[in-house]
Design goal:
The protein is of the alpha/beta class. The protein is 49% helix and 15% strand. The strands form 5 sheets. Strands 3-2-1-6-5-4 form a 6-stranded antiparallel beta sheet, sandwiched between helices. A 5-stranded parallel beta sheet has the order 8-11-14-7-15. A two-stranded antiparallel sheet has the order 9-10. Helix 13 packs across helix 15. It is elongated.
Length: 539
């Protein structure tokens, strides 16, 4: 038989273990009260907390009370013994509740104990120097000494519970914050990867948009084909965030970055000890993407031995972790991407034919940037605005010559190369104008090569090229092209002749082989400023 001190110590140790187990608040209180009931003979207990919404006290958790009795346990601050304890922050001990008019028995739970001496102890629960509620218990009266010992013990337990409540509230607040941040992130991603936000009005891109809009809501496997930098991951995310899996994970695996056992472990996970370095069990990407989408980038680089296991997952939706025999089933939507020609890889024996056909359910070919040059000006504007915002710059002027250069450049790195070029230009810019020296070396070399080729052109070739460019540029002015082009040619010829002849119109007219009056009229029509020095001025 334990003496009182040993009993209290054992009780506190057991309650400490209960509260450190990470149980939820109701479970922790229930376990705490069961410890008190078994060790100290307490029959009923309740934890009352202040409700900020209603401004009342309500029973948050209880032992020995029915749901109906708990529902009735609501108090105003200052009402009854419990309300007084919360209002004053001071403990109340009642030797016999039947003789205390302040004991309201609001729950009605003590009706069956009429005529028996039932003691009631109510202690405040204080969190950060503020009374947040009260802990109350009742038990059969033994003697005043025992009752005083129970009071001291409950005040200590109340401090334990206050810490548990505080931690519970912090965790609840952080969870709500995490849920809100996750919702905002999801909304941002869904907005970012809307089809409308993917830049491209060329016929090739419109065809891509039409296909992904149809396939997004299905669970069909999608194979994205295209050169490096064409935006395969962007399209994969657009498919995911416009599907009914948008709130589930989108997991990306670069199959070209790992080989052999490491990639197998990355995809399927492993158990401890399955290979050197496997020091603990590890979940694979297929498990992490359950109910969501798994994006397998550079899938053409996977070893043939691993292709067999991947084929099984695609067919059966099940697999085993490396080193394990337990089968795991998943619901994962697969989007694969490669810049290789998989049919050629199949012919070479480097890629399994059955896996190719399993992946090749819906194939989307992403065009190279040089195949959709009409999208380049919009892409330039998009990246310029983004990097201006990120770097606090104001690069907003691009000459027609620079724009034409960037449209003509073949962009072997596709959209990614264009993105990097614009970031470089914005970061290095000192004013608001995009000049050629801000462009990467490859583009500047392309421009110099073009100038060299242009300087060696014959007059006939130059005229042919200029005529073609003029027709393309003025295609929207149908019916006016001839007049517009001839006006520009005449204007440039007169300006060049005047410059060559020191702005003397009669000399320029003779040089061109036209009448001086004709030159004067043309100069006036074209607003060419040159002195009218005729024979009367000694010319």
């Amino acid at each position: 038989m334990l003496d009182r001190a040993e009993l209290e110590l054992a009780t506190l140790e057991e309650i400490g273990r209960v509260l450190s187990m990470g149980l939820n608040l109701h479970a922790a209180f229930d376990q705490t009260m069961r410890v008190l009931a078994s060790r100290l003979g307490m029959e009923r207990g309740s934890m009352v907390l202040f409700d900020d919404t209603s401004g009342k006290l309500r029973i948050e958790a209880a032992l020995g009370l029915t749901p109906e009795e708990i529902q009735r346990g609501r108090y105003d601050v200052g009402e009854g013994i419990t309300g007084q304890v919360v209002a004053t922050g001071k403990t109340r001990v009642v030797e016999n509740i039947s003789k205390d008019l302040n004991f309201l028995n609001r729950t009605g739970a003590r009706a069956a104990l009429a005529g028996q001496a039932i003691s009631f102890i109510c202690v405040p629960i204080q969190i950060d120097n503020r009374v947040a509620g009260a802990l109350s218990v009742d038990k059969r009266f033994v003697d005043a000494t025992t009752l005083e010992g129970d009071r001291r013990l409950l005040e200590i337990i109340s401090a334990f519970l206050a810490q548990a409540i505080k931690i519970n509230r912090i965790m609840a607040s952080e969870r709500e914050q995490w849920i809100e941040e996750r919702r905002q992130l999801r909304d941002t991603l869904q907005s970012k990867y809307k089809f409308d936000n993917i830049i491209g009005n060329s016929p090739a891109m419109l065809e891509v948009f039409d296909t992904i809009a149809q396939v997004a809501t299905s669970r069909a496997t999608v194979l994205l084909l295209g050169e490096t930098g064409t935006g395969k991951e962007l399209i994969a995310k657009a498919i995911h965030f416009n599907s009914n899996r948008a709130e589930k994970p989108f997991i990306r695996v670069n199959c070209g970055a790992l080989t052999g056992t490491l990639l197998e472990s990355e995809l399927f996970g492993h158990v401890k000890g399955s290979f050197t370095g496997a020091i603990r069990d590890r979940m694979g990407r297929f498990e992490a993407a359950d109910s969501g989408t798994l994006f397998l980038d550079e899938i053409g680089t996977i070893d043939t031995s691993l292709q067999v296991k991947l084929l099984r997952v695609l067919q059966e939706r099940e697999f085993e972790r490396v080193g394990d025999t337990k089968t795991i089933r998943v619901d994962v939507r697969i989007i694969a991407a490669t810049n290789l020609n998989l049919q050629e890889e199949v012919a070479k024996g480097k890629f399994r034919e059955d896996l190719f056909y399993r992946l090749n359910v819906v194939t989307i070919n992403l065009p190279a940037l040089r195949s959709r040059r009409e999208d380049i000006p919009r892409l330039i504007d998009f990246f310029r605005d983004r990097f201006n915002s990120e770097n606090g710059k104001n690069l907003n002027k691009i000459s027609r010559d620079i724009l034409n250069l960037m449209v003509r450049y073949p962009w072997p790195g596709n959209v990614r190369e264009l993105e990097n070029a614009m970031e470089r230009a914005v970061v290095l810019s000192r004013n608001d104008t995009l000049t050629e020296d801000l462009l990467p070396t490859a583009i500047r070399a392309f421009a110099q090569q073009g100038k060299s080729n242009q300087s060696s052109e014959t007059l006939d070739a130059l005229i042919r090229r200029m005529a073609t460019q003029a027709v393309n540029e003025y295609a929207h002015r149908e019916g006016q092209i001839y007049e517009l082009v001839l006006e520009q040619v005449e204007k440039r010829l007169i300006e060049e002749a005047l410059g060559r002849c020191d702005a003397v119109k009669i000399k320029a007219a003779d040089f061109l082989g036209i009448n001086r009056n004709t030159l004067n009229k043309k100069a006036k029509d074209f607003s060419i400023d040159a002195p009218d020095n005729g024979p009367e001025k000694g010319v």
